[in-house]
Amino acid sequence: MKRRKYNSGPASRVIQYLTLILFSALALFPILLVISNSFKTRKAIFASPLAFPTPETFSLKGYNTVLLRSNYFSYFGNSIIVTLISLALIILFGAMAAWALSEYKFKGNKYLGLYLALGIMIPIRLGTVAILRLCVSLGLVNTLLALILVYTAQGLPLTIFIMQQFMIQIPSGLKDAGRVDGATEYRIFFLILPMVRPALATVAVFTMMPIWNDLWFPLILAPSEGTKTLILGAQMFLGQFVTDWNSVLSALTMAIVPVIILYIIFSKQLISGLTAGSIKS
Amino acid sequence: MIDGINHNPSFNTAGRKVGFFTSDKTRGYSGMSKAPPNSQYKQKQKFRTYILVFLAPACLVYTMFMIYPLLSSLGLSFFTADKAGNESFTGFANFIKLMTDDLWAPRFWGALWNNVKFFIVHSLVQNPVGLLLASLLVNQSLKGRTTFRTILFLPTTLSVVIVGFAWQLILSPLWGVAETGMALFGLEKYFLPWLGLEKYALTTLSLVSVWQFIGIPMMLFYTGLLGIPHELVEAATVDGASGWTVFWRIKFILILPIVGIVSVLTFVGNFNAFDLVYTTQGVLAGPDYSTDLLGNLFYRTFFGHQLQLGNPTMGATVATMMFLIILAFVLLYTYVWQRRVTSYEY
Amino acid sequence: MKKMFLLFFISSMVFTAALFATGAQDGAAGASDKVTITIESWRNDDLAIWEDILIPAFNKHYPDITVVFSPTPPAEYNSSLNAKLEGGTAGDLITARPFDASLILFQQGNLATLNDLDGIDNFSSVAKSAWITDDGSDVFAVPMASVIHGFIYNADIFSELGLTEPETEAEFFDILEKVKADGRYVPLAIGTSDLWDVATMGFQNIGPNYWKGETGRNNLISGKEKYTDDQYVAVWETLAKWAPYMSKGFEAQSYPDSQNLFTLGKAAIYPAGSWEIGVFNEQADFNMGAFPAPVRNKGDELYISDHTDIALGMNSTTENPEACKTFLTWMTTKEFAELYSNALPGFFSLGDFKLTLDDALASEIIGWRQIAKTTIRNSYQILGRGEPNLESELWVNTAKVINGTMTPEEAAKTVQDGLDRWYKP
């Protein structure tokens, strides 16, 4: 009786749906507002910000400006390259380190773990000048590699921390079976890596967004036209005295859409990882 | 965070000690805990090159591009610079100045207090609502829960430029989005230009930040709740416990370690926050510094603004204080909270 | 699955290596004979003008020098420029704010002296005063433009309501009252959310009539006058009277909000800087007019803020000083002055040339120089180099006065106390 009340009573079921719908609406509304207004004339944006574009108020002027005045596709490519490669390195290096920390006992293990977690606590912007000097001496200024290295360093602490929690849970029987068969430790690592796939997806979702959305390091380390990222490019429309809200909203929309697509891709991974696990059980 | 458990539900994170710095293996309540520690096998070997190989890339990149730059900047807090930019050692003078000087102290303590309020709003709104949503989403029989989850996480993926812009537009007294919305419920007389009022601006921005980041605790709680074995819940239900009791007495207790992690992540995130205030309220975090957070004070001091040139040494002092505050909280978590939570282990 | 990860690993490694290689190639390509110089600027609004008009005009004379205009979003300019200067990656030419902010850059050795630059004498000592050392011995930037403060109004609303340009403050408030009584339009388009606009287009706009322009400004520097003196408190008192004529919820009204309010025809008067002209021309579909800040009493002498605002200096560590000097010299010519002033109506060239301006509003505003005495903002020279920063103090406290959370006297006292902390005349 009571169980049913908790799980599937019609009244509580309605309340559950209403709550979710309410919060979903709250989450979607501002995003839809930006997207819908990006298709309107400037007058219409302010006259009736809530209205959907109508034939009279429909305008692609903003998109026109964005596409004409900026190298949108080049920016987009840069963002994709930086985000995906950083992500790959974070996941690979992070998983390797987390594996070593959680699997092997060695002197200083605990302290190394602490050392690698320190980075969670300090804003990396503080180190900007030193990072810039480092990149200058390595000849990395205005290369995407500079961004990739910084983001990798920035993403590692949290990744290692999260991965460790997953790694400890892998049954030792599996690993020991491999070892009995004479597999090298590297082989065992690559054997268990797919097992923590949901962890990889979680880390990917959490670390991808700050990288994609970062404005600061592209500005400092790679501001040249050839290496500009999408968010830096979109920021160019927020000028000193700018009121060109068509362009701003269009640029913002064109920056939102790729993220949402990327997110949905990773989110599917995440879900399949989760369901795969529960089916097995 | 801990959704790996689903590969082998018998290893439940929920009951396991999840330390911030846990590096040794602590087994959960499951039967597997009797398994021999898997390190036995390796202790026979001498020097294990592969450990070095596994650790080297991460340590190298991390040390070079994070620790070294951060240390070299934090070190600046013990120096002071003259007009020509020559630096000289001053010991703790900068810290004393930051905390007692009548120009710096109000800004520092003001920002710290604002940060505490910012954190309180997140703790009271973001995390409970995140837990509520997670506990709704985890219900297997709920239709469309994948869609709901995707939608609810969406704001977390957005750039703060977009978030700031959208909410400024919504809350603007000029374009009337919020006011029109409130009028639907007859509440328009309660509309105020919140972002412009000293009394409300910080709370308003905290809520906008909650809106953006609620996906993170939601996901973490969600994965934690998914990992709770059915048998446990069913056993309790058979004993006649109500849904409410089952939730608080069993599920909540089991995800307590995640509550701890969420708190730590929220604290760290909040005390590093800067972007939202910067985008919506500008460098000076108006009105009258009422939305100034430590991150904004750091940024303004370190890099300067408009006619004020940056002061890297004082900026580094602010950052060092931020670091110490966060470290103190994390240590508190590790030694107090975590120790108490472990007592719930089976 | 294992293969997938191996593939993932290898491909990311290959990609990284490839990037290293391209990075190296870029470095090599930069060392060819053609010279490239880069301009740092906060004026990302002007990107198209530099790319389409100014740089091509320069390249007609000097085809071998490639000029790249590389602006930073204005909010990030100072911080990113400082970081780049420290890291040694700043561009060859650096857009300089006036007075103390740039002076410190010069003192730190970041900007080169331009004393012997050909054509620097095309600028009067007033024009150069914003980018020169206190003793007048070193010039470190080529002045580009000044901006003039005043009020821009919606002429259609004015004629509809039968209003005429005010000359005195009483007439000004009378107009505001009439617009308010009509009820359809916001009388005054300005808000306090962004702080700087009320200080710049409010305090520094109407203030010169109160402190008698340069006289008052110099007296503040010499210590003969203080912000707590009546004429300064009176500026804040007048600004406090603006509040009832501003839009509802002006506390949260940002600078772009104000611009939109005005250009969409919803507001009558916009407290302005001349830099708005370009944007307003593009966006407003009504007739506009402009008037200088009204005098306090009929017959008073008129003062306007004609603020030296923007200049271009040379990075002292540039690898191409000759090319930079060639470009800077070209910037001292009448050709540049004319191109720039017309491409950016409202940014008035500081060179000693008779210029013809195509834009009606811009020529009207520059005409005020004939009827008024000019001055610059009083928080920029000498008084802007200490902590707390005077300019920031004016921003914060002026906004508080208009918001009604501080009295004019309190604002005056706070500002003066801040100045007294470090400034001894």
Molecular structure report:
The complex is a heterotrimer of chains A (281), B (346) and C (425). With 281 residues, chain A is mainly alpha-helical. Chain A has helices at residues 2-7, 10-37, 42-47, 61-69, 72-103, 109-117, 128-137, 144-167, 172-180, 185-192, 197-213, 216-221, 230-235, 245-280. Chain A is globular, with a radius of gyration of 24 Å. Mean pLDDT of chain A is 82; it is low at 1-6 and 275-281. In chain B, the strands form 2 sheets. Chain B has a two-stranded antiparallel sheet. In chain B, α9 (230-238) packs antiparallel against α10 (243-254) and α13 (294-303) packs antiparallel against α14 (312-342). In chain C, strands 1, 2, 3, 4, 5, 6, 7, 8, 9 and 10 form a 10-stranded mixed beta sheet that branches. The N and C termini of chain C lie far apart (75 Å). Chains in contact: A-B, A-C, B-C. At the A-B interface, α1, α2, α5, α6 and α7 of A face α1, α3, α4, α5 and α8 of B.
Question: Main traits of this protein?
Answer:
heterotrimer; A: 281 residues; mainly alpha; 0% strand; globular; disordered C terminus; C: 425 residues; alpha/beta; 10-stranded mixed β-sheet; 18 helices
Write a brief structural summary.
The complex is a heterotrimer of chains A (281), B (346) and C (425). With 281 residues, chain A is mainly alpha-helical. Helices cover 73% and strands 0% of the residues of chain A.
Termini separation of chain A comes to: 27 Å
Main sheet attributes: strand count, strand direction, barrel closure of chain A: none
Reading side by side through the largest sheet of chain B, how are the strands ordered? 1-2
**In total, how many beta strands of chain A?**
0
